[in-house]
Amino acid sequence: xxxxxxxxxxxxxxxxxxxxxxxxxxxxxxxxxxxxxxxxxxxxxxxxxxxxxxxxxxxxxxxxxxxxxxxxxxxxxxxxxxxxxxxxxxxxxxxxxxxxxxxxxxxxxxxxxxxxxxxxxxxxxxxxxxxxxxxxxxxxxxxxxxxxxxxxxxxxxxxxxxxxxxxxxxxxxxxxxxxxxxxxxxxxxxxxxxxxxxxxxxxxxxxxxxxxxxxxxxxxxxx
Length: 223
Ligand SMILES: [Fe+2]
Hints:
Elements: H1 23-27, H2 31-46, H3 48-67, H4 69-72, H5 75-83, H6 94-97, H7 105-112, H8 114-124, H9 129-137, H10 158-173, H11 185-195, H12 202-217
Helix pairs in contact: 2-3, 3-5, 3-10, 3-12, 5-9, 8-9, 9-10, 10-11, 11-12
The structure holds fe (ii) ion.
């Protein structure tokens, strides 16, 4: 796996294969990689911007892995966990995912089921417990207040905590969200700093912050 040679994403979901540049090849041809690619294909068909989001999160996680391989474990598992973290959104109507206005309570409740739905799907397909955990727990917060459980996330798997940081960062800066403008890189950095230790595992947030700072100094975007 060419962890260090990750290509940059296109600048909008309409380019390339919905922003998924490089991900299909990175997933490889192991049975798990093939299964992951198939699921991403279904997600792309259902709602392409969500598939592009998953690819961006997977790429950010690979950058984090390159900085902390001992903490983040097997890179293939991490890549698949990132690529499939939102697979539960296959069961959220595309009209809800693509809504250009704030969702009502029913819409929010539907969205908030995607971690558990995704975990069930991945468990039933035989994905490793770490991949299941990342899908289930990526909206939990370090000091509590996330979902679906809302407790402290300190005891959750490190891959789930890393996915939470990467997911939040990508959601702040990526294009293609009709109801809000992406944050600038500087504003996203400030938000990550402000939420390290509250929303995010501070050690993992710092890994991403260092990566972002170095890439910004070199004039490179992360996604
Ligand atoms: Fe999610």
